[in-house]
Amino acid sequence: QLQLVESGGDLVQPGGSLRLSCAASGFPLGTAIGWFRQAPGKDREGVSCISSSGGITNYADSVKGRFTISRDFAKNTVYLQMSSLKPEDTAVYYCAARIMMCSNRPEEYNYWGQGTQVTVSS
Predict the structure, then answer these.
(1) Burial, 22: exposed, middle or buried (Cβ in 10 Å; 0-12, 13-18, 19+)?
(2) N or C, which end of the chain has less CB nearby within 10 Å?
(3) How far is Cα 118 from Cα 103, in angstroms, rounded to an integer?
(4) Is the pLDDT of residue 107 over 90?
(5) How confident is the model at residue 18 (pLDDT cuts 50, 70, 90)?
(6) What does the pLDDT average to over 87-91?
(7) Within 13 Å and on the Cβ side, how many CA atoms surround 38?
(8) Taking residues 39-68, what's their average pLDDT?
């Protein structure tokens, strides 16, 4: 069974940090994992992606230098380390999987987790 489960969302103050986790099960080798987010009233947007090998990563301009994506193959888990958080980072964060290369287009992903809420507020 193909499954993605996110965790780690929380309420955090501006300037704070969080680490989101995406536990993947049932996916074959060669699966890229992307992180997306969706704020109320806005479209879902790509945040970051990591290739199947872990050797290629990309980031949205809005999070470059603040967020870091990584994957632990032994645990089948992808992490999104978020620092210097801003109120505009508030959203539901989703991880998604697709075969082969990364993409920042949500319509190109076949499998999605249920999402985890991140709220940045004082």
Answers:
(1) buried
(2) N
(3) 22
(4) yes
(5) very high
(6) 98
(7) 12
(8) 96
